[in-house]
Design goal:
By secondary structure, this protein is mainly beta. The protein has 3 helices and 24 strands. Helices cover about 10% and strands about 50% of the residues. The chain has a 4-stranded antiparallel sheet, with no helix packed on it.
Length: about 350
C-alpha cells in the first residue's frame, strides 16, 4: 500500500511539474499592458492578414490573407493576395488573386525582384488535398500564375524565403500534422519541426530540432538566416554555406512567441509575436475573442552581440494575434492571424 501511495504521489508531482512547465514556457503568467509610443494611423479591413512583405524599391506591400474562423481549419478556407501602393496616402488594398481559381488559403509569402517593376512571388498554400507552394509573377501590379510546387518534404509548411529564381527555403512548423504526435509536440515544446532547402533540383532538410519553426528570413549580404521558434520564444540564427546548407550559430531569447520575421533597410529584424501562447491558441480556435499582440525589433550584429527593443504591445483590444510587422519609413504594417482588419501604425 505504501508503495502504491509513493507511485501515485510521484505521478501527481510529475503532472504538476509538466503543467507548470507548459504554463511558464508559454507566457501564461506574463502581464500584458498596452504600450505604443505612436498612433494607429489606419485599420485596413482585410481578414486574416497573416503575412505582409514590402518592396521598398517600388514602394508597395503584398498581403497574404486568409479568413480563418478557427485554426487549425475544419474546412477549406479561401484567401487572397492583396497589394497596397505605398506611393499613395489612402492605402487602399487592391485584390490581385481573383483570377486564381484553385483552392487557396495563403500563408507565408516571399518576393524577389526580377526586373523593372517585375517580381517573383511565392506563397505557402494549404488545401484539403495537401500543401503546396504557389508561384506567381507580378508585373506592374498584375499577378499571373506560373506553377504549383509540391513535395513530401512539405509536411506542414509555414513560411518561406526566396534566395533566387531557382532556390528557396521554407519552414515546417510541425513534424506531425495530426494525432497524438502533434499534441505532444505542441504542449511539450519538443523540437520536431525543421527547415527545408530547395536547391533548384532537390528538397533537403538543412536544419532540424526546432520547436514550431515559423517565420524565416535571411540577410544574404552576411550569409545569415533567421528562423522563429515561437514555442521556445527564440529566434534561431544560422550561417548559410555555399551549398545552401545551414550551420547553427546561436539562439536569441525573445521572451515572446515570435512569428513572422521581416527586415528593414539596416538589416534589423522586425517580428510580430504572441506574448501568451495559450491565450493565442484559444483565440485561434475561436474559443476566446482576443489575444495579446507584440512587435519587437532585433538588432543583430554578430554572434553574442545583439539587442532587442519592444516596439508595440497590446492586450488584444486593438489587434489580436500579431503575426507580422513591417516598417516603412515612420509606418509599421502590423498583420495578424484572424482579425477582420490589420493595422498601419505611425511612430
Amino acid at each position: 500500500m505504501r508503495l502504491l501511495k509513493k507511485i501515485l504521489l510521484a505521478i501527481v508531482v510529475l503532472i504538476l511539474i509538466f503543467v507548470a512547465h507548459v504554463l511558464i514556457s508559454t507566457g501564461f503568467f506574463r502581464s500584458v499592458e498596452s504600450k505604443f509610443e505612436g498612433e494607429i494611423l489606419k485599420k485596413i479591413p482585410i481578414t486574416g492578414a497573416e503575412d505582409i512583405t514590402i518592396s521598398r524599391t517600388d514602394s508597395f506591400a503584398l498581403i497574404s490573407a486568409t479568413a480563418r474562423p478557427s485554426y487549425p481549419p475544419n474546412k477549406q478556407e479561401r484567401g487572397e493576395i492583396y497589394l497596397i501602393d505605398l506611393k499613395t496616402s489612402d492605402y487602399q488594398p487592391k485584390l490581385l488573386s481573383a483570377g486564381f481559381t484553385k483552392p487557396f488559403a495563403p500563408h507565408g509569402i516571399s518576393i524577389l525582384k526580377t526586373g523593372e517593376k517585375a517580381y517573383l512571388v511565392m506563397v505557402i498554400n494549404h488545401t484539403e488535398q495537401g500543401h503546396s507552394i504557389e508561384v506567381f509573377n507580378l508585373n506592374n501590379h498584375q499577378l499571373s500564375y506560373v506553377k504549383s510546387l509540391t513535395d513530401p518534404a512539405m509536411i506542414s509548411p509555414n513560411d518561406l524565403f526566396i534566395v533566387d529564381e531557382n532556390r528557396f527555403y521554407f519552414t515546417n512548423d510541425h513534424g506531425y500534422v495530426k494525432g497524438l504526435g502533434r499534441i505532444v509536440e505542441e504542449y511539450t515544446g519538443l523540437g520536431w519541426s525543421n527547415v527545408v532547402y530547395f536547391d533548384g533540383t532537390n528538397y533537403k532538410e538543412v536544419a532540424d530540432g526546432i520547436a514550431y519553426a515559423n517565420g524565416i528570413n535571411a540577410d544574404l549580404k552576411r550569409n545569415l538566416l533567421f528562423v522563429a521558434s515561437p514555442r521556445k520564444f527564440l529566434v534561431k540564427v544560422y550561417a548559410i554555406k555555399k551549398d545552401g546548407v545551414l550551420s547553427f550559430v546561436e539562439n536569441i531569447p525573445c521572451g515572446t512567441g515570435v512569428d513572422n520575421i521581416e527586415m528593414d533597410q539596416q538589416g534589423h529584424l522586425w517580428i510580430g509575436a504572441h506574448p501568451n501562447l495559450l491565450q493565442f491558441g484559444e483565440y485561434a480556435k475561436g474559443k476566446k475573442k482576443t489575444a495579446p499582440s507584440e512587435i519587437i525589433e532585433i538588432i543583430y550584429k554578430e554572434k553574442g552581440d545583439y539587442s532587442m527593443e519592444q516596439i508595440y504591445l497590446d492586450d488584444g483590444k486593438d489587434m489580436s494575434g500579431a503575426s507580422v510587422a513591417v516598417p516603412f519609413g515612420d509606418l509599421i504594417f502590423a498583420g495578424n492571424v484572424k482579425d477582420d482588419h490589420f493595422l498601419i501604425l505611425k511612430r
